[in-house]
């Protein structure tokens, strides 16, 4: 269980996060919707240990992690741009985290092959990153993150640089893989469809203040998310035909 309580962060005199609180059980994906500049990236950086909060706490299973360095939190932070090792092929990029943990070779092979299969990358295993499409590189990035079984996966609009069709494919694939690996993740986006596709839980961040919802319908019905307005627009368009 991830538990965040009264988390606040300012840069100079500008408040960026204001008393954010939420819980996230193991195996759930919290999709946080918000416009640019609302504090989404700062929230992820605080959870990852890349920024220190001004106040509040971050706990895993009842224990605070604020005093633990980022590299020891068992948290992986993925950006829009997949940061792969250019000198390693797909297999070795995914295997990297296991190798530095001295996992035996046969176990590395078995785990990486299973991961590549789940990400539909088995036929790309020997290719270099520069031989892959944007969507394929993002899949490799996911594989490298998931193979070490992080306690929490943080995703900062990871599909933002992809074209619409590839983005939709990646959203569906992410949902499938997240369920298969019981992934615990916080996924921030400004895209309503993406939030609804990916999340098992939902939040809305505005001016540094986070609202979480008891249900998908409550998230949809909040006028701030704009989802119901979109539904009404397309309903009226079809009705006019």
TrEMBL record:
<dbReference type="InterPro" id="IPR003593">
    <property type="entry name" value="AAA+_ATPase"/>
</dbReference>
<dbReference type="Pfam" id="PF00005">
    <property type="entry name" value="ABC_tran"/>
</dbReference>
<keyword id="KW-0813">Transport</keyword>
<dbReference type="InterPro" id="IPR027417">
    <property type="entry name" value="P-loop_NTPase"/>
</dbReference>
<dbReference type="InterPro" id="IPR017871">
    <property type="entry name" value="ABC_transporter-like_CS"/>
</dbReference>
<feature type="domain" description="ABC transporter">
    <location>
        <begin position="2"/>
        <end position="232"/>
    </location>
</feature>
<protein>
    <submittedName>
        <fullName>Putrescine/spermidine ABC transporter ATPase protein</fullName>
        <ecNumber>3.6.3.31</ecNumber>
    </submittedName>
</protein>
<keyword id="KW-0067">ATP-binding</keyword>
<keyword id="KW-0378">Hydrolase</keyword>
<keyword id="KW-0547">Nucleotide-binding</keyword>
<dbReference type="InterPro" id="IPR050093">
    <property type="entry name" value="ABC_SmlMolc_Importer"/>
</dbReference>
<dbReference type="GO" id="GO:0016887">
    <property type="term" value="F:ATP hydrolysis activity"/>
</dbReference>
<dbReference type="InterPro" id="IPR003439">
    <property type="entry name" value="ABC_transporter-like_ATP-bd"/>
</dbReference>
<dbReference type="GO" id="GO:0005524">
    <property type="term" value="F:ATP binding"/>
</dbReference>
């Amino acid at each position: 269980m991830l538990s965040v309580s009264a988390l606040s962060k300012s840069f100079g005199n500008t408040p960026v996060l204001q008393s954010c609180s939420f819980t996230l059980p193991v195996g759930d994906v919290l999709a946080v919707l918000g416009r640019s500049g609302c504090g989404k990236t700062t929230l992820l950086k605080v959870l990852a240990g890349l920024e220190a909060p001004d106040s509040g706490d971050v706990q895993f299973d009842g224990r605070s992690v604020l005093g633990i360095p980022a590299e020891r939190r068992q948290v992986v932070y993925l950006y829009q741009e997949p940061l792969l090792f250019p000198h390693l092929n797909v297999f070795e990029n995914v295997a990297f985290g296991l190798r530095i943990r001295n996992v035996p070779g046969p176990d590395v092979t078995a785990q990486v092959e299973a991961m590549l299969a789940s990400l539909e990358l088995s036929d790309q295993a020997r290719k270099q990153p520069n031989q892959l499409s944007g969507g394929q590189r993002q899949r490799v990035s996911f594989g490298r993150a998931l193979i070490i079984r992080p306690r929490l996966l943080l995703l900062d609009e990871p599909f933002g640089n992809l074209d619409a069709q590839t983005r939709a494919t990646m959203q569906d694939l992410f949902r499938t893989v997240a369920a298969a690996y019981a992934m615990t993740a916080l996924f921030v986006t400004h895209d309503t469809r993406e939030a609804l596709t990916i999340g098992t839980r939902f939040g809305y961040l505005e001016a540094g203040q986070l609202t979480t919802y008891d249900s998908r319908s409550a998230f949809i019905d909040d006028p701030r998310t704009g989802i119901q307005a979109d539904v009404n627009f397309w309903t009226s368009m079809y009705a006019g035909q």
